[in-house]
Design brief:
This protein is α+β, with helices and mostly antiparallel strands and about 500 residues long. It has 2 domains: about 140 residues, Nucleic acid-binding proteins (OB fold (Dihydrolipoamide Acetyltransferase, E2P), Beta Barrel), CATH 2.40.50.140; about 280 residues, BirA Bifunctional Protein, domain 2 (2-Layer Sandwich). About 35% of the residues lie in helices and about 25% in strands. It contains 16 helices and 18 strands. An 8-stranded mixed β-sheet has the order 6-10-11-18-17-16-15-14, with helices on both faces. Strands 1-2-3-5-4 form a 5-stranded mixed barrel. Strand 8 and strand 9 form a beta hairpin. Helix 6 packs across helix 7 and helix 12 runs parallel beside helix 13. The protein is elongated, with a radius of gyration of 29 Å.
């Protein structure tokens, strides 16, 4: 087998030869009139359904060539699919055929001709003209037994998309999921907005931000970790239903569930509670699943998941008792709960309270077991600095997190709109964070000023679009649903 360097050299020499003959290897004067999907029968393409008449003009990448001397069958792929073209010397002429013989797999070429069926019934274009449009100087990975290395697939996504149709299908589904989210919310009176990506204060969530500097203003800025505080400002301003689908940035670790930049849906509804958003989320996610997958009962990594409403609902304490099998008496005793958590290897800060300890136990013992859609409610107040306290039990908040296949999919709560309570909790959050050389602890005074004008009672929610796409495309890693995920620099 020829090695890659030999093939690269041969292709460059061939390109130079064709260029010296006056052939434009990067032409931009060919207009395809048809897409492959539109001219192929959609049902039983190898059957006997009549084929469209007239000359068809397509363009695409050559994916395979079977040559028989004076004729060849070519597999051509465009955005919509792949089909066969029959190129015969006596049909297109000797000079064009000589040019065709110098084309390579990977070249982008325009063809025109009429449709016919081969002896096996395959719809095929009988070429009458060909035109080279782009010369490929590198071989497709099939030449080397396919593109199978996972890191190479992520690093060279353009090749991954080129040769793996199932990958193209995954990203088409992702686009469809986002479109359906927009349709669902817009049809319910939500207004799509955009809020700042660069923020003077890293607020709205607890995470390490990316830091930059604006020269003209002479100030540090942070890539946003969440749009929450700006979306709430819009509630103050009078927009009662708003949403944003955009990127968040968190300067933290990478894993199958985490990428430094990721896509979030965040939406807020005035005069609603977290319970209203549970109902809305059930309706939205199950509807999107039915539209994208054709069913509400999907399979994720071999596990059947039924997304049909209604979904299971537990308080955090109920989940620890029913799923982790912890004794209610243990959870009621703060000292015993802490002792149990330490014995499980959980590292606790001295200032961590009872609620923080129970939350850590939940993350360790319960999360991965929540395969079916499950809402977890009544999160402790100390781990929910922006959520409204429950009026019957101020130790917990009116908040839920949604888990599916053991992963957090959404976080929502009835919003805190008392500026005094909000100030106290933000100050407590900053004190608990301690010294941080990268983040200057600071209360967002403008946000508190906005609350002092009065924010209507409201509920808000964030849903990880990447994780939703993972679920509905049966993808094991977040990198499988992000076109260009972050990777370490390529080794030279």
């Amino acid at each position: 087998m020829e090695d890659l360097s030999q093939i690269l050299q041969q292709r460059r020499e061939k390109a130079q030869e064709l260029g010296s003959q006056g052939i434009n290897l990067y032409a931009n004067d060919f207009k395809p009139m048809h897409r492959i999907r539109d001219i192929l029968p959609q049902e039983d393409p190898a059957g006997d359904a009549p084929l469209p008449e007239g000359v068809k003009v397509i363009a695409g990448r050559i994916m395979a060539i079977r040559s028989f001397g004076k004729a060849a069958f070519v597999q051509v792929q465009d955005e919509t699919g792949r089909m066969q073209v029959y190129v015969k010397r006596d049909e297109i002429g000797e000079t064009p055929y000589a040019l065709f013989k110098k084309l390579d797999i990977g070249d982008i070429v325009g063809f025109s001709g009429t449709l016919f069926r081969t002896k096996t019934g395959e719809p095929t274009i009988q070429a009458v003209t060909i035109k080279p449009l782009t010369k490929s100087l590198r071989p497709l990975p099939e030449k080397f037994h396919g593109l199978t290395d996972v890191e190479t697939r992520y690093r060279q996504r353009y090749v991954d998309l080129m040769v793996n149709p199932e990958v193209r299908g995954t990203f088409r589904k992702r686009v469809e999921i986002i479109r359906l989210v927009r349709d669902f919310l817009t049809n319910r009176g939500f207004l799509e907005v955009e809020t700042p990506m660069m923020q003077a204060i890293a607020g709205g969530a607890t995470a390490r931000p990316f830091k930059t500097h604006h020269n003209a203003l002479g100030m540090d800025l942070y890539l946003r970790i969440a749009p929450e505080l700006y979306l709430k400002r819009l509630l103050v301003g009078g927009f009662e239903r708003v949403f944003e689908i955009n990127r968040n940035f968190r300067n933290e670790g990478l894993s199958t569930r985490h990428n430094p930049e990721f896509t979030m849906l965040e939406f807020y509804q005035a005069y609603a509670t977290y319970e209203d958003l549970m109902d809305l989320t059930e309706e939205m996610v199950s509807w999107i699943a039915a539209e994208v997958c054709g069913t509400m009962v999907i399979t994720y990594q071999g596990q059947e998941v039924d997304l049909s409403p209604p979904w299971q609902r537990y308080t955090l304490d109920e989940a620890l008792i029913k799923v982790a099998r912890l004794a209610p008496a243990l959870l009621a005793d703060e000292a015993k709960t802490r002792e149990f958590a330490l014995a499980k290897g959980i590292q606790l800060q001295p200032q961590a309270g009872h609620g923080k300890v129970k939350t850590e136990l939940f993350e360790l013992l319960v999360e991965e077991k929540l395969i079916s859609p499950t809402f977890i409610t009544a999160y402790p107040t100390e781990v929910s600095p922006l959520a409204r306290r429950n009026e019957k039990n101020p130790e917990v908040t009116d908040r839920f997190e949604l888990f599916i296949t053991g992963r957090e999919m959404a976080n929502a709560f009835s919003e805190l709109n008392d500026p005094g309570d909000q100030r106290q909790r933000l100050e407590k959050q900053i004190a608990e964070r301690g010294d941080d050389e990268e983040i200057f602890p600071e209360v967002d005074e403008d946000f508190l000023r906005a609350l002092e004008y009065g924010m209507p009672p409201a509920a808000g929610q964030g849903i990880g679009i990447d994780r939703l796409a993972m679920l509905l495309t049966d993808s094991p890693s977040i990198r499988d649903v992000i076109l260009f995920p972050h990777l370490r620099p390529e080794k030279k």
